[in-house]
Write a structure and sequence with these properties.
- The protein has 10 helices and 11 strands.
- The chain has about 290 residues and is an alpha+beta fold.
- The protein has 3 domains: about 70 residues, Helix Hairpins (Orthogonal Bundle), CATH 1.10.287.110; about 70 residues, Urease metallochaperone UreE, N-terminal domain (HSP40/DNAj peptide-binding domain); about 70 residues, Urease metallochaperone UreE, N-terminal domain (HSP40/DNAj peptide-binding domain).
- The strands form 4 sheets. The chain has a 4-stranded mixed beta sheet with strand order 6-7-11-10. It has a 3-stranded mixed beta sheet with strand order 1-5-4.
- A hairpin with a 4-residue loop joins strand 8 and strand 9.
- The protein starts with 5 loop residues before the first helix and ends with a helix.
- The relative contact order is 0.08.
- GO terms for molecular function: unfolded protein binding; zinc ion binding.
- Its cofactor is Zn(2+).
- Homodimer.
- InterPro entries: DnaJ_C, DnaJ_domain, DnaJ_domain_CS, HSP40/DnaJ_pept-bd, J_dom_sf.
Amino acid sequence: MSKRDYYDVLGVPKSSTEKEIKKAYKRLAMKYHPDKNQGDAQAADKFKEIKEAYEILTDADKRGQYDDYGHAAFKNGGMGGGGGFGGFEDIFGGAFGGGGRSRGGFGGGFEDMFSQQRQPRPKKGQDRQFNLTVEFAEAINGCEQIIELPINGVNKKINVKVPAGIEDGEKIRFVGKGEAGAFGGPAGDLLIQINTRPHTHLKRDGNDLICPVTTDFVTAALGGEVEIQTLESRFKLKVPAGTQSGRKFRMKEKGVKSRKGMTGDLMVEIIVATPTNLNEKQKELLMEFKELA
């Protein structure tokens, strides 16, 4: 009985690359391997045939000889052990065979390999993110809030401890409090993004607090005092004569204490108000001042 063309055996064209040949061999070998077809003589013969074709076509020298002379190139020398079932491990990493020769002389482990392929890898659950809005003073001084969030289809109560000095947009991470993992994988994380409500008159610039204060032009020109209201205290600041609108006075370490322990400054910005709706007497005085200036 004449041998079938090796390319036909593997179901690939003559122009196939080595990678394509290996892929075809793997598919057929898994189908006809004796471990999967115990007692089936036809499957065993088929496996020998595809193994023989594979060994020839993946050897550059042998493939060249076969392409030139066909099966005649190997009539005298033979394949050297082509009748056995060895070599399958080269593709499948020893999944068939190994040390033992159970089940009719063919290495065990076929089911083991497929059971491993069927078992999906553990997958970490998705992270979940929610927003929590706090007051300006709560972000600076710290606070604690209990919030209820939907996680894994169940509403869960989470105790959120907002650290003092946290900045707007920062996130607090709760490891393992997110979505459940798949196939034994760990749960994802829960992220709480802290958003800060604007203050009525204070602004934050990093660890510094900006406090705009409006005063009349007479106080700015002659000097005097302006009242400052911060989050925790009220005090008066002396304004020197000739203070211009926009001038800032720095008060050391009166700002925000960061999470790293660094304290910023309080920046008092003077805004000089221009008078409106002046009466005739006030206008006369201003005109007189202008003439004298």
